[in-house]
């Protein structure tokens, strides 16, 4: 089946999801935020097939979320550090973790905790607020309206 | 190819992505936050094939993000309103929109604006903060640590 391409839709959700592609891509990003940079570490942490990992790293590098830096010459070896664009994706990961912990975690509790270094809290959860007033943004107090980039 | 199931991984990102499945699911959620509830409206707004839409609505209903309510008898017709679990997903959508607007929008600007009704701001952007101290959470000030639900 041919996959629909969402890359040109006038929608930031469609474009983001088109770029991410699938589950593996987000899990690779999670490992990148954990400090993983090398192919073999990604592979060991995720138990992902090598060809799948290669394809997803290429995708993330091409999209600009990861960089590709040679760290050894013979044989050639590369690291995949987060770019500024990739680091800026962290809030999405934090929002997904918060929701998954709330609704999908086992009774044992969340599998991962976020330590917020600014306040030291070991079990910080993400809250999504408005840049203007700082208040929370929820389904009940936000309306989506057409913006300047909307094609009509 | 058999798709890897991430549902039992001890990771809230893996479980969330397993549940969401693909791009369409998030776009259906976007329309649900826009107030869309009926099959034909989802279909018209997204230009999605009817069998694909049926499968994704079943998935979201089965996962608990949408409810399924009969609103007409002959022929039987159903609405798909957001559940509490579904409404609580909004911060993830807001975080994705913020990132996509920042990195993937055309020069014309963002295709959609978020109006935050609590302060009236027409172009509110989402910021992800810590529930404990209110400070922002970024890749630079958050560490992921094993939590009680981590299987070792």
In total, the number of strands of chain A is: 5
Q: Topology as H/E string of chain A?
A: HHHHEEHHEEE
- Give the percentage of residues in beta strands of chain A: 5-15%
Task: Note the main sheet of chain A.
Answer: 2 strands, antiparallel
> Count of helical segments of chain A?
6
Strand order of the largest sheet of chain A: 1-2
Oligomerization state of this entry?
A: homodimer
Q: Which overall shape of chain A is indicated by the principal axes computed on the Cα atoms?
A: globular
* Low-pLDDT ranges of chain A: none
Helix percent of chain A reads 40-55%
Which protein chains are joined by the largest interface, and how many residues does each one contribute? A-B, 85 and 85 residues
Q: Structural class from helices and strands of chain A? A: alpha+beta
Q: Would you tell me the overall average pLDDT of chain A? A: 89
Q: What is the radius of gyration of chain A?
A: 18 Å
Separation of the first and last Cα atoms of chain A? 29 Å
Describe the overall structure.
- The structure is a homodimer of 152-residue chains.
- Chain A contains six helices and five strands.
- The longest helix of chain A is centred in the middle third of the chain and has 15 residues, at 90-104.
- Helix content of chain A is 40%, strand content 14%.
- The mean pLDDT of chain A is 89.
- Chain A has helices at 12-20, 23-33, 39-46, 50-63, 84-87, 90-104; strands at 69-72, 77-79, 112-116, 126-130, 142-146.
- In chain A, a hairpin with a 4-residue loop joins strand 1 and strand 2 (77-79).
- Chain A has 152 residues and is of the alpha+beta class.
- A two-stranded antiparallel ribbon of chain A has the order 1-2.
